[in-house]
Amino acid sequence: MIYGHIHQFLLRTIASRGVISMTETEKILNEFEANIQASVQELVKDINEKIKPFEQMIKIATDEFTVEEVIIFLSLGYDDATKSQNVFSATELEYFRILIEQIMTTATRQITGIHAVNLVSKMKSSFTKMDAQKLLNVWCRMRYLDKDDTNYALGVRAIHEFEGYLRQNMPDTIEECCLCKQIVFRGYNCPACGLAVHTQCLNRYLEKVQKWPCCKVEFSESQLDQLNCEGLTQTQHLEATQQSEEYNTVVEAVCDTSGDEDQGTQEIIPEISQRITRKRKRQND
Ligand SMILES: [Zn+2]
Ligand SMILES: [Zn+2]
């Protein structure tokens, strides 16, 4: 199919949204034009040939969190040549690096909202908790992060955009799943042997047998609760209790003012240029 307005429409839609489910993409396309002669896969293939020189790519993948087929817009240019595309300030990049490092080095691959905003204290540049909360909101909308009631985890976009980069630049921070051998962005470290496993892989395994797949130690739900708590050190627990009120104030303040925060952020390319070493502490170490 000749590259035309339907391709441009699809590219614009995905680039502006970051991530769209396959079901919604098909619906949007049908509303835009009846009887399209190509499948989404074919359109994506044509678009990818066009945008490759700009180190951008559209990828069809499964969202580990929702188990839904999604289409993701990826900016893959992290090298010196493309740094000019980067609209993150140096400060924002510094925060993003610290955040990823924290998420990837907890046994549950997620951190609480309070912990996330408190990371500003680890930064060299001056950056307020309010600034951090605004960015966290923007990154959630862009699907660089996912958030449930209390925790942040890496979103489907960060997972696909950063996989190659993390393997190259943060090899000590990543671990492969003991079942499928892919990097674990959403998962746990076994409390007994410390090996990593995806949440999805673990759940599938547990349907058959109630043991950890890595070392066959008995599994119980309470171990996951325990791991979720261990994501924070004792001091952080204390801080978290003391600061939860302050945190709520930060969240409320940002929610009031963040209406137009994401203007012009669609082409943001977070870049992690410093090598980060693993800081996770295992029980068996
Ligand atoms: Zn796995
Ligand atoms: Zn184990």
UniProtKB/TrEMBL annotation:
It is found in: Chromosome; Nucleus. The keyword Transferase applies. Keywords: Chromosome, DNA damage, DNA recombination, DNA repair, Metal-binding, Nucleus, Transferase, Ubl conjugation, Ubl conjugation pathway, Zinc, Zinc-finger. It catalyses: S-ubiquitinyl-[E2 ubiquitin-conjugating enzyme]-L-cysteine + [acceptor protein]-L-lysine = [E2 ubiquitin-conjugating enzyme]-L-cysteine + N(6)-ubiquitinyl-[acceptor protein]-L-lysine. PROSITE patterns: ZF_DAG_PE_2 (PS50081). The keyword Repeat does not apply. This is Non-structural maintenance of chromosomes element 1 homolog. Belongs to the NSE1 family. It comes from Parnassius apollo (Apollo butterfly). Residues 276-285 have a biased composition (Basic residues). GO terms for cellular component: nucleus; Smc5-Smc6 complex. One of its GO terms (biological process) is double-strand break repair via homologous recombination.
